[in-house]
Amino acid sequence: MAVLSKYVIIVSGGTGSRMDSSLPKQFHLLNGLPILMHSLYAFYRNDKSIKIILVINKAHQKLWEDLCKKYAFEVPYDLVYGGESRFHSVKNGLDFIFKQESFLTNVLIGIHDGVRPLISQEVINRAYSTAESNGSAIPAIKSRDSIRIINAKKENKAIDRDSVLIIQTPQVFRADLLQEAYKHKFEESFTDDASVIEKSGYPIHLIEGDIRNIKITYPTDIDIAAIWVK
């Protein structure tokens, strides 16, 4: 496949309710810069031809614009408003891209959580190159902890942790696969983009993720990320 265009949709519409703060987590500072800016910088540094689509809550637009001015943030991007769920936010980003591109089989689209600021250049490269060859690429790491599963009766039992993988982003796909998959109506089982693709019957290709590629969720996550951020 001859790739003509590469995109990344950076989804950042959350409110950060688990951060014990009224400020959404993507706008908290990490080593002197808002978390979300680290995420955008990672893709801009990787390949300046990657077109960045930033999806945010409309209510956060003024706050984000003020931060961009304060920190002289000049990474180019297109802004799209989020929807009622992550699924709908991604769909809004995809719809924006589909209006720009005619030959979707020659387009790769990555989808990344805005609060994963430590994404490495190696994982970004691996994700796009694998998706170019196989149609999809989903970073995953093994669990280091013991795992137990709970059923509907609240009963729990241990399972083999080697059979469990922790999924990360960016998840990268050929654009025509995403266009077909996102014709589905939202389902609660759609916890990430791979689950939407899988619903359409397309195979999911896993790649090696990075233990440092954490999702900022709790205040202590910022302290951990500050040790690793470059």
UniProtKB/TrEMBL annotation:
Any idea which GO molecular function terms this record carries? 2-C-methyl-D-erythritol 4-phosphate cytidylyltransferase activity
| This protein's UniProt keywords | Isoprene biosynthesis, Nucleotidyltransferase, Transferase
InterPro entries in alphabetical order: IspD, IspD/TarI, IspD/TarI_cytidylyltransf_bact, Nucleotide-diphossugar_trans
Q: Where is this site: Transition state stabilizer?
A: R18, K25
**Gene3D superfamilies, per database record:** Spore Coat Polysaccharide Biosynthesis Protein SpsA, Chain A
One matching Pfam family is IspD
What domain of life does the UniProt record list for this protein's source? Bacteria
The UniProt family comment states: Belongs to the IspD/TarI cytidylyltransferase family. IspD subfamily.
Q: Which PANTHER family match?
A: 2-C-METHYL-D-ERYTHRITOL 4-PHOSPHATE CYTIDYLYLTRANSFERASE, CHLOROPLASTIC
In terms of NCBIfam families, this protein maps to: ispD, PRK00155.2-3
Per its database record, what is this protein's job? Catalyzes the formation of 4-diphosphocytidyl-2-C-methyl-D-erythritol from CTP and 2-C-methyl-D-erythritol 4-phosphate (MEP).
- The name on file for this protein is 2-C-methyl-D-erythritol 4-phosphate cytidylyltransferase
Give the organism, scientific name: Albibacterium bauzanense
Native organism taxonomy: Bacteria, Pseudomonadati, Bacteroidota, Sphingobacteriia, Sphingobacteriales
List the gene name.
Answer: ispD
